[in-house]
Protein 1
Amino acid sequence: MSDFFRLQKRIDELSAIGARDGAVTRLGLTAEEQAARDLVASWCAARGAQVLALPGDVSRQAECTLLASRTAQRFGRIDALVNNAGITMWSRFDAVSDFSVFERLLAVNYLGAVYLTAAALPHLRESRGLIVAVASLAGLTGVPERTGYAASKHALVGFFESLRIELRGSGVDITIVAPDFVRSELHRRAIGPDGRSLGQSPMQEPHIMTAQQCAQLIVAAMRRRRRLLITSTRGRLGRCARLIAPGLVDAAAARAIRKRR
């Protein structure tokens, strides 16, 4: 998965804001891309955080297990796990020519979170900690041109909703985050119908939320140990409207994709 797993800018911002605000004083992070990994580590260290930065690919279970064990050994405990790694796609389903993209999306967006959660859960039980799953509005409703991405995020949401019930009484809480469109490297590295990166963002980026704004909302939700964070008004309204007027929600999703914002 080395061609497809990258550290998103959102985790850069989340780590940086946490270090600045004192929310994260000891941070274990992983990414294959050394430049991005080193940048986040040095930024946070300069602001007083202790950082363990390891190379890794979340689609590989052994590497997830190593990250959790090394983090626990280094810092003595794990208080929070943020599952934020992800890749995306932009293509109508009938235009897809390389269906391996669906496997890649599931491997990173879904199984990566499963593997990391399994590795960190014993430590989180001890600390009565918090698991954060960064999903998407596409994990709560259908979105055109994002079939593979939406499927992987629906899987992510279903997994953590189910795990939350299993963990009742354990002291471990789960916060699911469903961001609207965010200005980040995720879109610039989106996979097209041929399985290759688009090379540029298809979004109207000046009109969507910045990574820093999204990270601030996530940190606030973590502090309150919220069950679900939906980062936009239209997302919150759409979740309610889907129960009574699902066709309107479908039309709104199609319009958002058409306008790329």
Protein 2
Amino acid sequence: MQPVNVIVNGNALSVTANADTPLLDILRNHLGLRGTKFGCGLEQCGCCMVLVDGKAEKSCGRPLSAMDGKAILTIEGLGTPDRPHPLQEAFLDEQAGQCGYCLPGILISAKALLDQNPSPSRREIAEALDDNICRCGSQHPILRAVERAALRMREGAPR
């Protein structure tokens, strides 16, 4: 076990665990960041989505060893209760969640999209969220929320 240096939500950390330990396990069980969810464990549902160097990645199948030197953003690093990210505000405004289990992964995927494309079409939003499964049927409010957040961000809301 060799230490792996990562930056998680802006904090430089040195993590020592088995090299093949999934990033999701490190986040939840070693660092106490439980916002990122375990869904299927097969990289198919998107509940475990995080940003790795700005790119949406499923953390359940990514080994710790592949994270050395990487910057990781989890849902906890997206915004705070006092200063929510425009996506978080828009999801609340649109009531875009029922059970909420999938929302951390969806918010992370949406952030990755809006960071690259500040004016996505509804089709581009749907495609960006294609790897995220919502079993509650909140897809239409989710799409509206991402559209609302994109507009707010274009109008100058902080990213």
